[in-house]
Design goal:
Arc Repressor Mutant, subunit A; two-stranded antiparallel sheet; mainly alpha; 4 helices; DNA binding
Length: 89
């Protein structure tokens, strides 16, 4: 299976959120800077992850994204499926 750039970047963004779990929302800007992903592209990825129930957003000056579940409850296949659609060889 060949992954698109979304399929490669989404796990990196989720790992970033997992490493910051419990510290409050993480801004797209900080995730993008650490993971070297443009904020604009990351926005699209996060919308897909939010629709899948994997992340939640917080609005405001201290807003950002955080995991919607415990890190140990999230599977790589869920992340890939959220941004790529159906997983089939």
């Amino acid at each position: 299976m060949k992954l698109s750039s979304k399929g490669r970047y989404a796990p990196r963004a989720m790992l970033d959120l997992a490493l910051n779990y419990g510290k409050g929302p993480v801004s797209l800007k900080s995730i993008g800077r650490r993971q070297e992903i443009s904020e604009r592209y990351l926005e699209h990825i996060m919308i897909a992850l939010q629709s899948a129930g994997l992340v939640q957003s917080t609005r405001g000056s201290r807003g950002g994204f955080s995991l919607a579940k415990l890190p140990k409850e999230i599977k790589l296949s869920q992340i890939i499926q959220a941004v790529e659609g159906s997983i089939s060889p």
